[in-house]
Amino acid sequence: MSNLMYNNMWHQTQEALNSLLDKESQKMTEPQKNKVLVFQMLATFYIKYVQIFRNMENVYDQIVHPQKRMLIRKILDGVMGRILELKNEMVELEMTEFHYFDDILQDMKLSPQQLDVPIPRYFLKERLEVIKGREKTLARILDECGLNLPDVKYAVKSIALEEAVKMIQIAERARQGRLRAMFMKQIFLQECRAREMKLLGHKLSDTTLAALQIQKVWRGFYQCKKTVKEREEEMVFLGMKPPPLFNEVSDAIVQSEQVSNLRDELQLKHEQKYQEALVSIKEDLRLLEGADIKEHLQDQIRQWFIECRLGRRSRCRIG
Asked: Which InterPro entries does the entry mention (predicted)?
């Protein structure tokens, strides 16, 4: 996807969040005494917040603009906090951590998979160095304790030349025996066909019967293949068997992963440039306008002292 696509997704998600906040503020002001209605209201808000969270997390992971990422991160943290609050309210309402949203999902035309709360990808990306450091520390501790399994080396057993020749001869004789058995089987089948031809010669001479025999065999073969194909399609449809190209990675997925990796690199570069720009702009501002700002502040301080002195003198005269 392009940057324009993620910007549009961000705008749509922001509009959905604003409308949801308006609805939530209106619903919360109306008192509800029915427990079922309260749960449906909380569950509806929970599902909508989960959808917003999924879209927002996807936008935050793929967008490359550092200022936009900072803003989206704040909104994303707020949405996650609101999801936890709604979950806590539903648990306190029903006294259970397991809830059923079947009717609500059906009304909203959503699948149960869309209700899953994924772990944000930036949790892993931001703590990647820490995780690698822990893995190195754990590997070093295992090495020091001697708990790492050493590489197992299998010894090759050497045999005598006569024994090796004997094994090769046995394998070759077995191969020749299999070929001879296959050849004798073919001869036997040919003799059986010849005897059948002699017994049924007058019947096979009829071309109509021969055509019917061929059609019967072909239709049986075709129907067998069709039945096997339909059975496989049914198993795939029922989810009891993976599709034919399940283990193969498509070109679109490979390209998507490449684009995602490229976006990660751009995010790091832009973030580094942004941090460097903050320092450089601050220094430039100090050099260009530092003297004017200092003089302006000094004038304000002098004016404050003058006003304080005048105020004290006026109070003393009155006293």
From this structure: N-DRC_Component
69 to 26, 48, 267: CA distances (angstroms): 30, 22, 9
Place of tokens 């190195």: 136
How many residues belong to the chain?
A: 319
Cβ atoms within 10 Å of 45's Cβ, excluding its own: 21
Residue 220 CA from chain centroid, whole number = 46
What is the tens place of the pLDDT at every residue in 112-122?
888 888 888 88
Tokens of 80: 């996650």
Domain spans, the chain: 3-117, 162-212
* CA–CA separation, 260 and 144 (whole Å): 39
Residues 104, 40: contact at Cβ < 8 Å? yes
- How would you label 89-108 residue by residue, b for 16+ Cβ within 10 Å and e otherwise? ebeeeeeeeebebeebbeee
pLDDT in tens, 33-53: 788 888 999 999 999 999 999
Radius of gyration of the chain (CA): 40
Q: Can you tell me the distance from the alpha carbon of 280 to that of 285, in angstroms, rounded to the nearest whole number?
A: 8
Q: Are 265 and 66 in contact (CB under 8 A)?
A: no
| 129: three-class secondary structure by DSSP | helix
The two tokens of residue 25 are 């503020």
